[in-house]
Design brief:
- The structure is a single chain.
- By secondary structure, the protein is α+β, with helices and mostly antiparallel strands.
- It folds into 3 domains: about 1-410, Glycosyltransferase; about 415-450 and about 455-515, Immunoglobulin-like, CATH 2.60.40.1180; about 520-650, no CATH class.
- It contains 20 helices and 28 strands.
- It has a 7-stranded antiparallel β-sheet with strand order 2-10-11-12-17-14-15.
- Strand 14 (about 480-485) and strand 15 form a beta hairpin.
- Helix 6 packs antiparallel against helix 7.
- The termini are far apart.
- It binds 2-acetamido-2-deoxy-beta-D-glucopyranose (5 copies).
- One 2-acetamido-2-deoxy-beta-D-glucopyranose binds near residues 449, 450, 459 and 512.
- One 2-acetamido-2-deoxy-beta-D-glucopyranose (NAG) binds near residues 18 and 276.
- Pfam families: Beta-AFase-like_GH127_cat, Glyco_hydro127M.
Length: about 650
């Protein structure tokens, strides 16, 4: 350990002493180990759709993660830059939750290979014995994957924890050596490493607390100051295209960096104990969605933050990273606004950005998307013309390897325990089975039967050895929600901070939740509106023609698809005529897949009229016209869940029907 290290540890402990607290601040809620929470019903089916699609097969044919190169090893084992690291982080939970032996074996081989090739200095990855510069970031998603493997299989603990400590010691020296290993991307993504350090601190400190906290501080000091990026005086309130970044950190306004950076302030709070870090995290979250938000739950960034216009793009990587960050924000802070939004993103923005079979994905989705094709010109200042094509790797390969973390991490964060581990809470609503042992040796099983979000009702059965307080999230949009316990009368829900308490006795407890919601509209730019009911956003699903642009030579299911509108989409709607339609599946089972045209059981009807709505740049919709005149007869159109639409209008001009 170097001299400077000792000095900084003292400085660090003085910092903690100044706030009167030492050690890491506790989280409000704790996640459960991978494998404790399993999807059932339609959500299990959705995970299998992903597993049988691009996510579960790409390692077999896609050269970004399947080819052989350095050191005679397959590159996906060793390429801890982006390809292998993202793939591993996502496919560890995907393989285990889908119980797919091929993927589980592949993840194990990946882990074994990386650990076996860690060099004597502690470095992991393709820069071993090469002259390639050692940048830290690429290892961060790999470390998340390794932690998940340990959670699932504690036999791996010593091997992984030892390797992580070797790497932490090296990284600590590099950081003290003028921030070695921190280039511009690593500089924005330091919080992911801090979270791994905090996992070590929480579960395997082994006397290394000072080293761990010092490394967290070094990462923060050499990284982007997120407490400033998220400060209202610096935060961009428009598309950032020509806007100079007042802090000089251009990459802090990059959409994926920001999605990952949402974790930075809650992670910082744990070692600073500074309430201001939590307050700023919350303000930053609100600013992001106020100025760049989408009715689908997510925000727009076609590379950089892109404002509110409906033709601008949202990158698939930032969709899944925001979901993961929102889960973590909730666990540290406990504000239900984070999980309300993550659930909306999961059930709207995520499935909208892939074909129903999860074989083809976009790089950018648009809130109003009238074509998915090679667009010249395109509406994205910093992305290519191929960005909204549904394919294997449109525009960049990153989202092909990163998107598979979306569903698995949503599932693994769907339940949490309270900090004292005596209570269990369901925070994401949907069909699950969770098994865990709570404090005071209380083994508990929870089974949730529902087709939510395609229904308002959820049936929960809990078995427990001892009495405890169970919690279930009641989303902020619920109106007239009721709960009926053990077949008793339905009574109004009464959530506290978003959670309904249910007193569970030893033995079996059942309860039924009914969680209706009103139809609501959201004001969007140019006087347009977006339509919601409960967790789902509703859009006009533009009927489409489809053309295969290319097919992968080895795997023909991996194809690039062009979609064009085959009917008119230029409508204004009268929101006073919106009517909700529920056609529950007679079998009780949803179709598989469910996120494609005409498949979800819920829809809305609305009176619409044709209008003049110009096309911009020949392939995308201009801004919705304000107060347009009807150019033809009124008719009734149907709106469907946004996640099932691949071409759509989600922000409509309005008119008043007669
Ligand atoms: C996973 O699959 C194996 C082999 O088919 C089976 O024995 C095991 O019970 C399954 N595990 C779970 C959790 O479903
Ligand atoms: C790196 O080089 C050293 C010294 O030549 C050698 O001992 C070691 O095996 C090499 N490591 C890898 C992973 O190839
Ligand atoms: C807490 O954070 C704020 C904002 O970054 C800073 O101004 C303040 O000095 C910090 N407080 C302590 C005790 O470090
Ligand atoms: C929930 O329980 C009610 C009452 O037992 C039953 O009618 C309903 O079919 C159940 N729904 C689901 C999704 O299991
Ligand atoms: C809630 O209850 C009120 C009063 O009965 C009723 O007017 C309203 O339609 C209900 N809303 C929903 C979404 O159930």
């Amino acid at each position: 350990m170097t001299q400077s290290f000792t000095f900084l540890v003292i400085a660090g402990s003085l910092l903690s002493a100044a706030s009167g607290q030492t050690g890491l601040a506790p989280k409000q809620y704790l996640s459960l180990p991978l494998g404790s929470i399993r999807p059932t019903g339609w959500l299990y089916d959705q995970l299998m759709v992903q597993t049988n699609g691009l996510a579960g097969h790409e390692h077999e044919f896609y050269d970004y993660v399947s080819e052989t190169d350095w050191m005679g090893g397959p590159s996906y084992y060793s390429s801890l830059e982006e390809a292998g690291s993202y793939w591993f982080n996502a496919m560890v939970p995907n393989g285990i939750l889908a119980n797919n032996s091929g993927i589980i074996q592949r993840s194990q081989e990946f882990l074994d290979y990386v650990l076996a090739n860690q060099d004597s200095t502690g470095w992991m990855g393709p820069e071993v014995n090469t002259t390639k510069p050692r940048y830290l970031w690429g290892r961060y998603p790999f470390m998340f994957g390794a932690i998940q493997m340990v959670e699932y299989n504690p036999d791996l603990t010593d091997q992984v924890v030892d390797a992580l400590y070797k790497f932490v010691n090296l990284a600590n020296q590099m950081l003290h050596n003028n921030g070695e290993g921190v280039e511009a991307w690593t500089q924005t993504r330091w919080e992911d490493f801090v979270m791994t350090l905090q996992w070590l601190y929480d579960f395997h400190p082994n006397g290394n607390e000072a080293l761990l906290v010092d490394t967290m501080e070094q990462l923060k000091y050499t990284g982007v100051p997120w407490e400033k990026v998220f400060e209202s005086q610096y935060f961009p309130t428009t598309a950032t295209d020509d806007l100079p970044n007042p802090l000089g950190y251009v990459l802090s306004w990059h959409g994926v960096n920001m999605a990952e950076g949402l974790k930075a302030l809650p992670a910082t709070y744990r070692f600073t104990h500074n309430q201001s870090d939590l307050d700023r995290a919350s303000e930053g979250w609100d600013l992001l969605f106020q100025y760049h938000g989408r009715p689908s739950g997510i925000y727009a960034a076609d590379e950089y933050l892109a404002g509110l216009e409906a033709a601008r793009g949202t990158e698939l990587c930032l969709v899944v990273e925001t979901m993961f960050s929102g889960s973590y924000l909730y666990q540290v802070i406990g504000d239900p606004k984070y999980v309300d939004r993550v659930e909306r993103i999961a059930y709207n923005a995520l499935p909208a950005e892939l074909t129903g079979d999860f074989w083809s994905r976009q790089y950018l989705q648009q809130q109003n998307q009238i074509a998915a094709k090679n667009m010249t010109p395109d509406p994205f200042p910093n992305d290519g013309p191929y960005s909204n094509v549904f394919g294997l790797e449109p525009n960049y390969p990153c989202c092909t390897v990163n998107h598979p973390q979306g569903w698995p991490k949503f599932i693994t964060n769907a339940f949490v325990t309270t900090a004292d581990q005596s209570s269990l809470a369901q925070v994401y609503l949907g069909p699950f089975q969770t098994k865990t042992t709570l404090a005071t040796e209380n083994p508990v099983t929870v089974t949730v039967n529902t087709i939510y979000p395609f229904s308002d009702s959820l049936n929960t059965t809990i078995t427990a050895a001892k009495a405890f307080t169970y919690y279930v999230r009641i989303p902020s949009w619920v109106v007239n929600g009721t709960i009926s316990i053990n077949g008793g009368a339905a009574t109004a829900v009464s959530p506290n901070n978003g959670l309904q308490a249910v007193q569970v006795k030893a033995g079996t407890t059942t309860f039924t939740l009914n969680l209706p919601a009103e139809i609501t509209t959201e004001s969007r730019p140019h006087g347009s509106v977006a339509v919601h009911r409960g967790p789902l956003h509703y859009a006009f699903d533009i009927p489409r023609t489809s053309k295969i642009l290319t097919q992968n030579g080895e795997q023909p299911l991996a194809k690039d698809l062009e979609f064009d509108a085959s009917t008119a989409w230029e409508y204004a709607i009268d929101t006073s005529t919106l009517q909700f339609v529920n056609n529950p599946p007679p079998s009780g089972t949803l179709p598989s897949p469910v996120f494609d045209s005409g498949l979800p059981p819920l829809s809305m009807t609305v009176t619409a009229c044709p209008i003049n709505w110009p096309i911009a740049g020949s392939t995308f919709a201009a801004s919705p016209p304000t107060n347009p005149a009807c150019t033809g007869a009124q008719k009734t159109i149907t709106l469907t869940p946004y996640g099932a639409t691949k071409l759509r209008i989600g922000e409509f001009p309005v008119f008043t029907a007669n």
